[in-house]
Amino acid sequence: MTGSYDASLVALSMVVAVMASYVALDLGARVTASSNTRARWYWLLGGAVSMGVGIWSMHFIGMLAFDMGMPASYDAPLTLLSLLIGMGSSAWALWVISNHRLGHLDLLGGGIVMGAGIAAMHYTGMAAMHVDPPVTYSVPLVALSLLVAVLAATAAIWIAFSLRTDTARWVLAKKAGSALLVGLGVYGMH
């Protein structure tokens, strides 16, 4: 099977990945800065929804960018499940970021959970797609995509934790540069 990509949709998916990453970095700081327990939970929930929807949207925009030359339909419950997986793994990452300390095991565990969540969201979304013939996978490429997702998520958690209390003059530029790196990681996994 040969297909083609719509370059404008590919670019849009990249922009969405970077924007979602920036929002996650910013909300990680807001969750940490909240002294009120209720406000922390609202920021965490809002961050999980916005980051989860951002990653999920990036994924589906990327799927729409690929013209397979055949019709495709989507299973609604599996598509919704992929969105919920993205939000759940985002909530976990923001919770890890909002802790007062980030040990090596916290960082590694958070990166694995978030990366596995990104991959699970991706492959659940792919399973929701009905095409004939069905989609098949290369095990080494799936393993590589999982590794990229875990590395990108681990970097995202470390960067977000590092920037969450930063009030330096260049914090906006630091967050933008970090969001670009994290967005490229999420994009690269896909």
What key phrases describe this protein's structure?
190 residues, mainly alpha, two-stranded antiparallel ribbon, 77% helix, elongated
**Tally of helical runs:** 6
Q: What's the order of the H and E elements?
A: EHHEEHHEHH
Mean pLDDT: 84
Query: How many runs of DSSP E, i.e. beta strands?
Result: 4
Give the strand order, joined by hyphens, for the main sheet.
1-2
User: Helices and strands: which structural class?
Assistant: mainly alpha
Largest sheet: 2 strands, antiparallel
Strand content: under 5%
Low-pLDDT runs of 5+ residues are none
Q: Determine the N-to-C terminus distance.
A: 19 Å
Q: What is the global morphology?
A: elongated
User: What would you report as the Rg, rounded to the nearest angstrom?
Assistant: 17 Å
Helical amount: over 70%
Could you explain how this protein is built, in words?
The chain is built from six helices and four strands; from the N terminus they run E-H-H-E-E-H-H-E-H-H. It has helices at residues 7-33, 37-65, 76-98, 104-127, 139-163, 171-189, and strands at 4-5, 66-67, 73-74, 129-130. Strands 1-2 form a two-stranded antiparallel sheet. Strands 3-4 form a two-stranded antiparallel ribbon. Helix 1 packs across helix 3 (76-98), helix 1 (7-33) crosses helix 6 and helix 3 (76-98) runs antiparallel to helix 4 (104-127). The chain is elongated, with a radius of gyration of 17 Å. 37% of the residues are buried.
